[in-house]
Backbone:
């Protein structure tokens, strides 16, 4: 059996966070968080899994630091493009007392915005078609121009036809989109392509006005998504697969410190476990175990020694 190969497409940015007496700097991004946690789980469990991150950075020292940090986490960075005239994007997180957070973005001139303009699409297809699973999010889609989105959609369609599985998380952030209609249109196209949709009810409600999770499922039914996971925060998630619906509850958490990367880490746990066991119940439970640990610590990336043991 060959090593499972996972390609994660997205953007990692410089992260600023208010701290006592000033501002802390780190690196962050939804897809990068998922890549990092998947890589850790594979390493922890001795699974033959290659997690590759596809993005673009500058040639500056901060971009160098990012790459070094990813490589330290055993993420394959051989497909990260570097542009000497561009820099990484930037975002800031403000935590509310309840543990929720607000995001502010500065990414209009980020290196990754040039990725599809400067890279050879046929070469990219030839590389990506060798992967078992390709993962992306709505935040990835939000940085694309209309023409880039068309090129990217065609690329994903070809990859799906070649046998790659497509996994997608809407991760809707209103501030990143010009209009709701633009986000709706792009998400609908990805729903059609997705084999695995890892959605959050709150996001779907905000964007499409759904009044209940069942209304969300009814709206998505025509897209015939093989695995649909509808996350509902602390309560749990609804998994629809193989013609069945199953509610999978979360585990009790003593204290929520920071919900940054809750969804990203859930996705990592889910995808990792499903790729190794092909069991959606185990996958959802693995997602809950990892996310439940992550939210009890500050920041998107917890210390390696705080990682939970996931074993079924």
Residues:
């Amino acid at each position: 059996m060959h090593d499972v190969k996972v390609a994660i497409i997205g953007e990692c940015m410089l992260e600023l966070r208010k701290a006592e007496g000033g501002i802390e700097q780190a690196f962050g991004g939804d897809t990068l968080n998922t890549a990092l946690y998947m890589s850790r789980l594979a390493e922890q469990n001795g699974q033959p899994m290659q997690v590759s991150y596809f993005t673009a950075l500058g040639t500056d020292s901060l971009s160098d630091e990012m790459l070094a940090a990813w490589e330290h986490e055993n993420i394959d960075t051989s497909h990260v493009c570097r542009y000497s005239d561009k820099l990484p994007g930037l975002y800031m997180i403000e935590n509310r007392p309840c543990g929720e957070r607000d995001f502010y973005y500065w990414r209009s001139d980020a290196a990754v915005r040039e990725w599809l303009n400067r890279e050879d699409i046929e070469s990219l297809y030839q590389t990506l078609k060798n992967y078992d699973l390709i993962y992306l999010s709505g935040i990835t889609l939000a940085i694309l121009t209309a023409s880039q989105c068309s090129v990217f959609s065609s690329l994903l369609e070809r990859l799906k036809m070649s046998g790659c599985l497509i996994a997608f998380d809407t991760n809707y952030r209103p501030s990143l989109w010009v209009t709701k209609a633009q986000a709706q249109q792009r998400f609908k196209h990805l729903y059609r392509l997705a084999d695995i949709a890892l959605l959050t009810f709150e996001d779907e409600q905000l964007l499409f006005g759904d009044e209940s999770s069942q209304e969300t499922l009814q709206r998505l039914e025509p897209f015939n998504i093989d695995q649909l996971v509808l996350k509902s925060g602390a309560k749990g998630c609804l998994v629809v697969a193989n013609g069945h619906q199953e509610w999978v509850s979360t585990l009790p958490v003593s204290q929520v410190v920071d919900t940054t990367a809750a969804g990203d880490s859930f996705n990592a746990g889910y995808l990792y476990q499903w790729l190794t066991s092909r069991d959606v119940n185990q996958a959802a439970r693995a997602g809950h175990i990892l996310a439940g640990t992550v939210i009890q610590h500050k920041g998107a990336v917890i210390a390696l020694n705080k990682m939970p043991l996931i074993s079924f």
